[in-house]
Design a protein that fits this description.
Rossmann fold; 14 helices; transmembrane; alpha/beta; membrane; 2 domains; 401 residues; AB_hydrolase_fold; AB_hydrolase_1; two-stranded antiparallel ribbon
Length: 401
């Protein structure tokens, strides 16, 4: 038999090598602790510099941000930032400059907290970030500045690191992160005294699943509805996400196995924490009849494809249709493909030129009832969507500014 061409031989063994590495990686992901670390990336402690207890090192003014800890009901301590509106800070700058900077023991004794609690016009954005890093990673600080700039006299921001992230204690888990999110929202409502009607929740990436988990539980158990919910670069559920997800937007996880759906389904059986946003959204629609929900996604998001936000939009529309029909859900009564086409035909679309478009669901929505939107922007990627104009427009509208 004729020997392999050396070039083909090299290519052959390279493919075998890459295949072996890929299979080994997939098998490693079946190990619970490896899977947890991959999903949350909480050991990626970025940025290493600066010191996040000294936000001034990120270009913020002295005491513009108050670093403090939130205490969860199960004994964890969550590192958090309270960010003042720029004009409020400027008005009280002299007094704030006289205060010590850095981590505070009791945030309720700070001037920043007093300015939030005593302002009847104050609005509060509570932010649930994505996986990896901490409150200061990547575009997150730029996002805070962009959001506060929507109304620099009224918008305060509360952001924090989940358990196991940054300087927070504990180890991340699905129920744990939902507890953390509820802790932050209860602090805003009960300690800071901000009514839910003045609280806007923004979730990004993993934080969109956290957002749905926390708001669904609060709506179901306490009937509380917030000013609005914004899901930036969200996903429908983890088992669906890993079929299309690319780490860093370049390294695919299970999409190379697309020709082998049986193998894909077998691997997804080993997903330990489902993060099922679709089921939680159905419940949220049921228990939150005045829900204001907007998905914002970029067409050029190569980490989480924009079709996930489309799935969430369809889930919300289907849930409204089911409630109006007096059934738990439409599933099974109409073919999925037919239902998809029906929603696509009935949704209201506004074209925004090069910017993208906005889909709104109005069928069966009573006056003052749900407002469900899906904003697809042309550019923004996975992280820069936080500072996109589309996100700021939604903030302005939902907070009534």
């Amino acid at each position: 038999m004729a020997p392999f061409n050396p070039t083909l031989k090299t290519a052959y063994w390279s493919l075998v090598g890459f295949g072996g590495i890929y299979v080994s990686f997939l098998l490693l992901l079946l190990v619970p602790i490896v899977q947890k670390n991959f999903v949350y990336l909480h050991h990626v402690r970025l940025p290493i510099w600066p010191d996040i207890s000294r936000p001034e090192q990120l270009g913020f003014a002295s005491n513009e941000i108050t670093p403090f800890y939130l205490n969860t009901p199960d004994g964890e301590r969550l590192f958090a930032w309270h960010i003042l509106p720029h004009e409020v800070y400027a008005k009280h700058r002299d007094e704030l400059l006289r205060r010590d900077v850095g981590l505070v023991e009791d945030v309720t004794q700070t001037l920043g907290f007093k300015l939030l609690k005593e302002d009847d016009e104050a609005r509060l954005i509570v932010f649930f970030h994505g996986n990896a890093g901490n409150v200061a990673q990547g575009y997150r600080p730029d996002g805070y500045r962009a959001w506060a700039g929507v109304d620099s006299s009224k918008i305060h921001i509360l952001t924090f690191d989940y358990r196991g992230f940054g300087r927070s204690t504990g180890t991340p888990s699905e129920p744990g992160l939902i507890t953390d999110a509820i802790t932050a929202l209860k602090f805003a409502m009960n300690t800071a005294g901000i009514p839910p009607s003045r609280i806007l929740i923004i979730g990004h990436s993993l934080g969109t699943a956290v957002t749905l988990g926390a708001t669904e539980k609060i709506a179901r158990e306490e009937g509380i509805e917030f000013a609005g919910i914004v899901l930036c670069a969200g996903f429908s559920k983890l088992k669906t996400l890993i079929l299309t997800y690319s780490a860093g937007g370049v390294i695919p996880i299970l999409s190379p196995l697309r020709p082998y759906p049986i193998v894909q389904r077998w691997l997804t059986k080993y997903v330990r924490e489902p993060w099922d946003g679709e089921e939680r959204l159905k419940s949220l629609i049921k228990y939150s009849p005045k829900l204001k929900l907007t998905m914002v996604h970029a067409h050029n998001d190569y980490s989480i494809t924009w079709t996930h936000s489309q799935m969430l939009f369809h889930t919300a529309a289907s849930a409204i249709m089911a409630l109006n029909a007096g059934v738990e859900e439409i599933e099974g009564e109409v073919d999925k493909g037919q239902r998809f086409e029906e929603i696509e035909k009935k949704k209201q679309r506004v074209e925004l030129g090069e910017e993208g478009h906005v889909d709104t669901w109005i069928e069966g929505v009573p006056a003052g009832g749900w407002k469900i939107e899906n904003r697809l922007v042309t550019w923004g990627g996975h992280d820069q969507i936080l500072v996109a104009s589309a996100t700021r427009f939604v903030i302005r509208e939902m907070l009534g500014l």
